[in-house]
Amino acid sequence: GNLAAGFMAKRMGLPLRRLVAGVNSNDITHRTFTAGEFHRSDHMEKTLSDAINIQVPYNMERIFYYLTGEDEAIVTAWMHEMDRSGRLTLPAPWLKKLQEVFDSRRIDDDAMCAALRRAADEHNYLADPHTAVALSAAWAVYGDEVRPPTEGVAAAGVAAPVVVLATASPCKFEASLTAALGSARWRAYAEGPDFPVAARQVLAAKEHAFAKLAGRGSVEASQAAWEAEVRGWLD
Prior knowledge:
The chain is mostly helical and about 240 residues long. The chain has helices at about 1-10, 30-35, 60-65, 70-85, 90-100, 110-125, 130-140, 175-180, 185-190, 195-205, 220-235; strands at about 20-25, 35-40, 85-90, 100-105. The strands form two sheets. Strands 1-4 form a two-stranded parallel sheet. It has a two-stranded antiparallel ribbon with strand order 2-3. Helix 6 (about 110-125) crosses helix 8 (about 175-180) and helix 8 (about 175-180) packs across helix 9. The chain starts with a helix and ends with a helix.
């Protein structure tokens, strides 16, 4: 989603040079960008960055659409092939065009944990595991320091910034942060002033057990009944 939005913004005139995807071991986006292999995996691997455990990213269709100059016929044929076989291999000219804009890195759990520790130790920034994947990818592509640009603002002698899009609050990912930083550092964060007040209130709220929701005739009626029950607790 971030990549698709960034690609749209670039086409609208935002001066972006490259769009880099950081992915975990569920790496279909990485395989697409590096080899043109938009191939569904046979299984999904469990990772510490589970919100990006993705087998088929639906926003890739949007990227293909703008990559081809909004050619509906080409994209429709590609997606039909993906639906039919689970495997779309981009023709070489389209892969080359894709790689003019996009890059990627595959970040496993060890590398993610290392990036999370580095962000905390060197920059006093506590990232969630998915943002740590992005940080690791940025450091892998651009190195430790921002490099001078090769075009655009180079003549003005201005360094090119690298922007990493953060995903979520680290307060949601106790298990992943504990794996990366240890239980003592998680506890210090959870009990300290940087832990979001709203999250602390949720954790302190009374838990309610309820039986499996029985059908109420239609899906809509069942959803309405469940929502009413939960809203009653919140009120």
